[in-house]
Amino acid sequence: MQVGIEIGTGPGGAPALVDLEELLATRLLVQGNSGSGKSHLLRRLLEQSAPHVQQAIVDPEGDFVTLADRFGHVVVDAERSGSDLQRIAARMRQHRVSVVLNLEGLDAEQQMHAAAAFLGGMFESERDHWYPMLVVVDEAQLFAPAAAGEVSDEARKASLGAMTNLMCRGRKRGLAGVIATQRLAKLAKNVAAEASNFLMGRTFLDIDMARAADLLGMDRRQAETFRDLARGHFVALGPALSKRPVPVTIGRVETSARSSSPRLMPLPEQPVEAARDLIFAPGEPEPLRPTPARRPTPAPPATVDVLAQLARHRPAPAAEAPPEMPQQERDAAIDAVMADVLADPDAAFRSIAVLYQDFIVRCRMRRLGEALDLAAFRRRLAVARAGVGAERAAEPEWERAAAVAAGLAEELQGVFLLLARAAQEGAPCPSDDDIARACGSRSPGRARRLVAYMESRGILVCRTDFRGNRVIALTELGWETAPGDPARAAPPPDAPPDLFAAE
């Protein structure tokens, strides 16, 4: 599903949109000197995308903790052990809670260790929890430095490895890296090179301008324009932004950072002699000014309390509750949403987590709320991939097939229902391509392995007739398919559907 979020205005005052689904697949790099508006840009992106996708922010200065009050992010203080941060990160992915990792108060080496543990916990989470999410890392040059600095090699390697995993291997795990840096020259090249979308702000050093121009496909003369960009003005390029470099002015934000840019204050008015006396005259000892009492820094909450908060977290209720809907009408609406999700030609080959995220967003748009949990979605997806319509699903014979499928492993249910439908209709045995599609794969080899595994478990019996066609019998149902060529190619996307067609 395509979701366009507006980050500001482009040429001619037209809205500058970011394709959120494309951004999740292609990642983003933001570059600009201090004061160019990078943090403002990240805040605008986070605010606009918060209703659509889970977020994790690695915040070295504590600027983004203000998102918690407005958008419900959970703030995680990083002053805890690495194992605690890994556990919190895994629990965050499980419960799909947006989180701000606050690194404020830690020194550079401690920040690198904490960020490495947190990113590693997200990266190593269980496959069932690989939901799409934005992972925003501000001041990325601190965590993926191009050269060794004053920190230990152990901290640098751990942090750099976690950032490399995020940008190079995170996409298959649903992690979309959004990294911001003051200087491209200080950022590790293998981390920066994995981004396909770029927002380049004001920069002055020749080496940074040359790298920015090279990433945007601009010549050296055009690179000089980066010096003239105003605060909050960027040049955008990438599949989620624009096919050619375009200027973008970032829009306003709803929340504000705790820190702000320094502002001028008027000097105290006093005669020169009085100022001289204040500095040089011995005079009487000045009374000691009382030192303002510093409020003690509160201890970070216990890890157990943070984990409990993640488990209890629920999205903020809508301003207006959706109207009550009859169950029959609600089921029909859910079926329609499922059909919309599977209408995409690539839906058969996407992971369960990605399809479920798409399904939940579409349900919210139709005011259906959290229509199905993940387990129920898996079962309904298996039925939908087998092409079973509502009328057939209510037949007593098909209820037998559904009951048998419910006792199988989740990855086998869709294959079993596909074979059951073919056997009940007396249709030819599905090909390896058809079976692979039913389990969300493009590999005929995986289909053959699944069939062999199910046969070894006594779920089905497979035989070949004298023409080389395959016949599959389902043992518990007593149904048998007609002979079918296992090597038959799947129909092209524009061809009429066969077994996958909904009735």
From TrEMBL:
<keyword id="KW-0067">ATP-binding</keyword>
<keyword id="KW-0547">Nucleotide-binding</keyword>
<dbReference type="InterPro" id="IPR002789">
    <property type="entry name" value="HerA_central"/>
</dbReference>
<dbReference type="InterPro" id="IPR014588">
    <property type="entry name" value="ATPase_Atu1862_pred"/>
</dbReference>
<dbReference type="InterPro" id="IPR008571">
    <property type="entry name" value="HerA-like"/>
</dbReference>
<feature type="compositionally biased region" description="Pro residues">
    <location>
        <begin position="284"/>
        <end position="301"/>
    </location>
</feature>
<dbReference type="InterPro" id="IPR027417">
    <property type="entry name" value="P-loop_NTPase"/>
</dbReference>
<dbReference type="GO" id="GO:0005524">
    <property type="term" value="F:ATP binding"/>
</dbReference>
<protein>
    <submittedName>
        <fullName>ATP-binding protein</fullName>
    </submittedName>
</protein>
<feature type="region of interest" description="Disordered">
    <location>
        <begin position="282"/>
        <end position="301"/>
    </location>
</feature>
<dbReference type="Pfam" id="PF01935">
    <property type="entry name" value="DUF87"/>
</dbReference>
<feature type="domain" description="Helicase HerA central">
    <location>
        <begin position="6"/>
        <end position="109"/>
    </location>
</feature>
<feature type="region of interest" description="Disordered">
    <location>
        <begin position="481"/>
        <end position="503"/>
    </location>
</feature>
